[in-house]
Amino acid sequence: MTNIVVLVKQVPDTYSERKLTETDHTLDRESADAVLDEINERAVEEALKIKEAGEGEVTVLCVGPDRATDAIRKALSMGADKAVHVSDEALHGSDLVATSRVIAAAIGKLDSVDLVIAGNEASDGRGGAVPAVVAELLGLPQLTHAHHLAVEGSTVKVDRETADEGITHLEANLPALVSVTEKINEPRYPSFKGIMAAKKKPVETYTVADLGIDAGEVGLTNAWSAVQSASPKPPRQAGERVEDDGEGGTKIAEYLVGQKLV
Amino acid sequence: MIEWSETDELIRESIREFIDKEIRPRTDELESGQLPPYDIIRKLFASFGVGEIAREGFDQLIEHEKRKADTGSGAGGSAAGSGGGSGFTLAGQETMALIAISELAGVSLGILASAGVSLGLAAGTIMSKGTLEQKQRWVPELLTFDKVGAWAITEPEAGSDAFGGMTTTVRRDGDDYILTGHKTFITNGPYADTIVVYAKLDTGDGTPIRDRKVLAFVLDAGMDGLERSTPFKKMGLGSSPTGELSFDHVRLGRDRLLGETEGTAKDESADSGRESARANFTAERIGVAALSLGIINECHRLCVDYAASRTLWGQEIGRLQLIQAKLAEMEIARLNVQNMVFRTVEKLRAGTQPSLAEASAMKLYSSRAATEVAMEAVQLFGGNGYMTEYRVEQLARDAKGLMIYAGSNEVQTTHIAKGLLGR
């Protein structure tokens, strides 16, 4: 029996225009459709595969505003068994250290967790540090950037892929924390049955106080960093045009080398 | 009052996600006929557990029939549920199916035609008229779409006058039957594995051909004498392969005669073929209302977006009253057709279904509304609307098919009138 916790986040749809609010430079959640993060869908898929291959229970854990229930519902529709939702006004604008503390405390509320699976980063903030910080706080081995994951008995094996180091094979004893990349799998669509069943699955809701965390440790005013200003992405520059006078191939190669693309 | 529930909306979202990822990027290939729709339908069924749900329903029905047979009350097809004669019950989830088909209709009516014919008509007919053995032999693989089904009734000279004009004939030969004739406009015909074929029984006793008994048989691809044509080129429903079937002395065992009985000679209306085909008409016509709603919704959505973003003379075209008039008409059509679909849901939930006359009225109105809305969408998009890239021209071509398919709208008119005048 493997008890798996998947960390999920509701993010603005990457297909819509994403921006920060003008007042406090936090994410403008109203400006875009909110969806379950794509990488998190893959994390849920990976957990479900482990569960289906043997025995286990999949709990999704989400820190986010009330409307994040939609993202939770989607994960439950895919087949997760239950959910924990930490929702508290005080969390608005929390940095990733505070967020990680909250996540770690919420995981601490659950019985015997064997495996925590997260996305390697969320498609909105892209800090990419939460999995490592949570592992550190819980004292779990961290196996990050997995593009392959296997649980064998009480060990977890991971192929870790990074741009700098290529592929590394990692192994750890359970309990452990794994973060997965978007390459790990193709997530399933929630089936009709799954969607209908999701309504009846338990969702436990906590405030920060329920987790024994002081509201003064979280939120925008207590963040270690602050966004001073934000500006929209500059429009794309026109590309470079190469006329092929017999040297086209060489010129393209030179361009790619110049841009450090090869 | 009926409204789409939260679960309905989640299903809609999930189907849309599938459409955006799996269907839209391949629309050109599908619509040109380069890519048959079957792999996508299989993935759709597997992803949403449609095959699984249908399979469970099938197993329950079979168990039910076995028990009935054991207690001596005889096995029959009377277990048909609220699915409208198709033999499958929607088990309180009527809206789920309606939403799924209406969403798909907005992107590819052809895919739905292919899936609907195989599951609803081919498998449905075997479920409602076949013996227990016949159901077990052919239905499971149709439910998962491992096999593609076709339902062959139309002939070159017999469209809406399907039974009267039918000339495809079976003759008895010992314990077998010999089938000869042609069928046309057969959805999935070019690729079908399992084919339900209707034919007139020629007993050689001089009965005029119009009055002969109609029997239904199940054929498998590859049988001697069975030929499948290549797909026709059509005005719309490009994603759905349609073709001809021809039968040159195809030998059929009695185990392929649906129900394994020719019906009683005394009661003409009881011959198995006519009755089973009629049972499908109501369901098919209700289906057209849901398909029309899908096309209207999609046109409506595309047009509202376009009216708000396209500018002419320095302003959005949505500010022009002639454009507003088109949008308003689309909204009226959307409300009316959606209400018809809601009324159907209400009836199904109450354990009944619309009468044939009512289903015919819905079919006629909704198909006409969808065609008008889609043609007006092309007009609203102007030159862009005439280009494939903007998608509304495909919807207009697809919608027109709904005025002809499932009984031409002229035939629907007569069925509505018959309902009013009591024949």
Layout of strands and helices, then pairs:
The complex is a heterodimer of chains A (262) and B (423).
Chain A: E1 2-8, E2 10-12, E3 34-36, H1 38-53, E4 56-63, H2 69-78, E5 82-86, H3 96-108, E6 115-119, H4 130-138, E7 142-152, E8 155-162, E9 166-173, E10 176-180, H5 192-198, E11 203-206, H6 248-258
Parallel strand pairs in A: 1-4, 1-6, 4-5, 5-11, 6-10, 7-10
Antiparallel strand pairs in A: 2-3, 7-8, 8-9
Helix pairs in contact in A: 2-5, 3-4
Chain B: H1 6-23, H2 27-31, H3 38-48, H4 50-70, H5 94-105, H6 109-129, H7 132-143, E1 149-152, H8 162-165, E2 169-173, E3 176-187, E4 194-201, E5 214-220, E6 226-228, E7 242-252, H9 272-309, E8 311-312, E9 315-316, H10 321-349, H11 356-385, H12 392-402, H13 409-421
Parallel strand pairs in B: 1-4, 2-4
Antiparallel strand pairs in B: 2-3, 3-7, 4-5, 6-7, 8-9
Instruction: Indicate the overall shape of chain B.
Output: globular
Count of helical segments of chain B? 13
- Rg measurement of chain A, Å: 21 Å
Q: Total strand count of chain A, please?
A: 11
Largest interface: A-B, 14 and 16 residues
**CATH class assignment of chain A:** Alpha Beta
Determine and state the CATH class of the largest domain in chain B.
Answer: Mainly Alpha
State the oligomer. Answer: heterodimer
Number of domains of chain A: 1
User: Taking Cα atoms only, what radius of gyration of chain B do you get, to the nearest Å?
Assistant: 22 Å
Biggest beta sheet summary of chain A: 9 strands, mixed
Count of domain modules of chain B = 3
Helix content of chain B: 40-55%
Under CATH, the topology of chain A can be stated as Rossmann fold
CATH homologous superfamily title of chain A: HUPs
Query: What portion of residues of chain A is helical?
Result: 25-40%
The topology string of helices and strands of chain B comes to HHHHHHHEHEEEEEEHEEHHHH
Question: Main beta sheet of chain B, described?
Answer: 7 strands, mixed
Can you identify the CATH superfamily of the largest domain in chain B?
A: Butyryl-CoA Dehydrogenase, subunit A, domain 3
Summing up helix and strand content along with how strands pair, one would put the structural category of chain B as alpha+beta
Give the N-terminus to C-terminus distance of chain A in angstroms. Answer: 46 Å
